[in-house]
Amino acid sequence: VAVHVLNGPNLNLLGTREPGTYGAVTLAGVEERLQRRAEAAGVDLVFRQTNFEGELVTFIQEAGIAGAGVVINAGAYTHTSVALRDAIKGVDALAIEVHISNVHAREEFRHHSYMAPVCVGVICGFGVASYELAFDAIVPLLEKRAA
Ligand code: DQA
């Protein structure tokens, strides 16, 4: 079982970017936490970040074709990208959408997600723990699918 954790634009700035909203943990810190969890669960972790929409499409395709689960924080592309939605659907990826912040408590334009309808579910608002919650949620789903 493998999980690809995919990060979109500006998440490379985590730790210094709007710390009041996104906290002080860096993206490398998030990767470290997930790596520990993956080792404990016997799961292969692939952790990636890009600022380019098309590259995120490619990452989703690669994960889906490999039969890996997808935990995706697409950042602002969540609210704008039909291409990401089509990629998840196109490779039939088992995906969970995550956000560090509670997007529903923020500006109206963050309330809509193009991806959410093609994901198993959405986890948002728990800080970087949103990633860990999503990881814990996706592993049993992948194991069930592989059985
Ligand atoms: C985010 C929320 C998005 O609205 C925003 O554009 C981000 C980060 C989050 O993790 O809370 O870049 O996805």
* CATH C-level label: Alpha Beta
Tell me, rounded to a whole number, the average pLDDT: 97
Instruction: Return residue spans where pLDDT drops below 50 for at least 5 consecutive residues.
Output: none
Heterogens: 1,3,4-trihydroxy-5-OXO-cyclohexanecarboxylic acid
Which structural class fits the helix and strand makeup? alpha/beta
Find the CATH topology: Rossmann fold
Q: What is the CATH homology-level superfamily? A: Dehydroquinase, class II
Number of domains: 1
CATH architecture grouping: 3-Layer(aba) Sandwich
The radius of gyration is: 14 Å
Order of helices and strands: EHHEHEHEEH
Question: What characterizes the major β-sheet?
Answer: 5 strands, parallel
* Strand residues, percent: 15-25%
Beta-strand segment tally: 5
Shape: globular
Number of helices: 5
Q: What order do the strands of the largest sheet run in, or round the barrel if closed?
A: 2-1-3-4-5
Note the gap between the termini: 11 Å
Helix content: 40-55%
Binding site for substrate: 73, 79, 86, 100-101, 110
Subunit structure: Homododecamer.
GO molecular function: 3-dehydroquinate dehydratase activity
Family: Belongs to the type-II 3-dehydroquinase family.
Write structural notes for this entry.
It is a single chain. The chain has five helices and five strands, in the order E-H-H-E-H-E-H-E-E-H. With 147 residues, the chain is α/β, with parallel strands linked by helices. The protein has a five-stranded parallel β-sheet with strand order 2-1-3-4-5, with helices on both faces. Helix 3 runs parallel beside helix 4. The mean pLDDT is 97. 1,3,4-trihydroxy-5-OXO-cyclohexanecarboxylic acid binds next to loops. It catalyses: 3-dehydroquinate = 3-dehydroshikimate + H2O. It is an enzyme of class 4 (lyase). Pathway: Metabolic intermediate biosynthesis; chorismate biosynthesis; chorismate from D-erythrose 4-phosphate and phosphoenolpyruvate: step 3/7. It comes from Bosea thiooxidans.
